[in-house]
Design goal:
Layout: E1 10-13, H1 28-39, E2 43-47, H2 56-61, E3 67-70, E4 75-78, E5 83-86, H3 91-104, E6 107-112, E7 116-118, E8 130-136, H4 140-151, E9 156-159, E10 165-170, H5 175-186, E11 193-197, H6 203-208, E12 211-214, H7 220-225, E13 228-229, H8 237-247
Parallel strand pairs: 1-2, 1-11, 2-3, 11-12, 12-13
Antiparallel strand pairs: 3-4, 4-5, 6-7, 6-8, 8-10, 9-10
Helix pairs in contact: 1-8
Length: 249
């Protein structure tokens, strides 16, 4: 575990529920803290369940210039838009998930390499390369039944970005593994990384980083896995974590 502030060489930030407030904005306090950390030589990367199309402008607005982890780690990009690594789901898996969504009458979204489809999906699924499927569920019992069914498939990595959804990636794909790759590129270790998140798709990177931090609004399981709990995403929780652990404020 991290023993002093100087050990941290990279900060990995989740976006929704973490870096962003409920208006999907980065607060001024968060911007200032990120800028000051980078001025001290600490690298900052966004590590998100979002598609690159809906997060690259945030990275650009912060002046980040290294890597971008997207779709829960299915893809890693450079700041200049070059694809570093990608892992997709098998088309047979995609068809099973589409069928499951129809069978339960839930609301799904699917991320391909080109875009995110919500509600209506392409007729010819095999003409696309798929990275992630998400299922929104409004009934806890239905969610548990779906989760139990999905857990029987060893080809799937299951997480969530909200207590009432399930996110599905290819097995072995998560933010921790993507961060591990980035650490290799930067010649640092996970022990020199600070991670901040709020949901189950963040829990592995919080568990495996030298300093894993949960948001004040995080799911309880995430808080239990974290070394430290900061304020909520409406209270500049990212800034408070950076100020405390990196900047010594």
């Amino acid at each position: 575990m991290v023993t002093n502030k100087a050990n941290i060489k990279l900060i990995a930030l989740d976006m929704d529920g973490t870096l962003l407030n409920s208006k999907e904005e980065i607060s001024e306090a968060n911007r200032i803290a990120i800028t000051e950390a980078r001025e001290q030589g600490v690298e900052v990367v966004l590590s998100t369940g979002r598609h690159r199309l809906s997060c690259q402008e945030y990275a650009k607005s912060l002046g980040l210039n290294s890597y971008l982890i997207t779709v829960n780690g299915s893809e890693v990009w450079t700041s200049t838009g070059e694809l570093v690594t990608r892992q997709s789901l098998h088309i047979e898996t995609i068809q099973k998930l589409v069928d499951l969504n129809e069978r339960y009458g839930t609301s799904a979204w699917m991320a391909s390499t080109e875009q995110v489809f919500r509600g209506e999906f392409p007729e010819k699924l095999d003409e696309h390369e798929w990275l992630k499927v998400g299922i929104d569920i409004d009934d806890i019992e239905v969610k548990e039944r779906i989760l139990k069914e999905l857990e029987e498939d060893e080809l799937l990595e299951l997480s969530n970005s909200h207590p009432m959804n399930i996110e599905i990636n290819a097995v072995g794909i998560n933010k921790a593994r993507a961060l591990e790759k980035i650490c290799g590129y930067l010649d640092i270790t996970l022990n020199e990384v600070m991670t901040v998140g709020d949901s189950l798709n963040d829990i592995k990177m919080i568990q495996e980083a030298g300093l894993g931090i949960a948001m004040g609004n995080a799911q309880e399981e995430v808080k239990e896995a974290a070394r430290w709990v900061t304020s909520t995403n409406e209270e500049d929780g990212v800034a408070k974590a950076i100020n405390h652990w990196i900047l010594g404020k």
